[in-house]
Specification:
It contains 10 helices and no strands. The protein is an all-alpha fold. The chain has one domain. The model has no long low-confidence stretch (mean pLDDT 80).
């Protein structure tokens, strides 16, 4: 069940840059260490609904229902485009600026959680990732899925914290350059738009 193979697989998946990583980096660069930690926490807890769906078998229902998958998918697309706009807009919640106001931690975490909650691929991903590492005993399958999911969440939080703290440290080097901050905001916006496009292309 909990093996070195699972830990390596999960770590590779978590380290690979995705929407949550980009959001955490943006918050670290935009508002510093505290915001990055809240972003990492929100991204981690945003995994819970998808993990629960995979554990209870609801992910299979989502995967076989084209309408439900499409609704969830385009809700996620709209949210990513909203984040892109927030990165571009002066004073936006994701904009990197020297005089940016500190945002409430719960608001940062809530936006982070929605990134994962509105991604229908995540529950299907867990349904594919976790079963191969189960013992094969039906009586303990739910407990094992929950344990593996908890380990995956712990790895997610740890890796995202490292990403966020790195971004917060780099923030001090960038605040003195208005040009660098403009290009960072454009870059984050472009990445969110690209991620939205990729999600929109996913087949139901």
């Amino acid at each position: 069940m909990l093996s070195a193979q699972f830990l390596v697989t999960a770590l590779v998946v978590v380290i690979a840059p995705g929407t949550g990583v980009i959001y955490t980096l943006a918050m670290g660069l935009g508002q510093g260490r505290r915001a990055a930690l809240w972003a990492a926490l929100g991204c981690t807890f945003g995994i819970v609904p998808s993990l629960a769906a995979a554990t209870l078998g609801l992910a299979a229902v989502l995967h076989t229902s084209a309408l439900l998958f499409t609704v969830m998918k385009f809700a996620g697309v709209a949210y990513l485009l909203y984040l892109a706009w927030q990165a571009l807009r002066s004073g936006g919640t994701l904009a990197v600026a020297a005089d940016g106001r500190a945002q409430p931690g719960l608001a940062i975490a809530r936006r982070a959680a929605l990134i994962n909650i509105l991604n229908p691929k995540l529950s299907v991903f867990f349904l594919a990732l976790l079963p191969p590492f189960l013992s094969g005993n039906p009586a303990t399958a739910t407990v094992e899925m929950t344990l593996l999911g908890a380990v995956f969440m712990a790895l997610t939080f740890g890796v995202f914290v490292i990403y966020g703290l790195f971004a917060a440290r780099a923030r001090d080097l960038l605040l003195g350059s208005a040009r660098a901050m403009r290009w960072l905001n454009r870059g984050f916006a472009a990445i969110f738009v690209a991620l939205a496009g990729r999600l929109a292309e996913e087949p139901a």
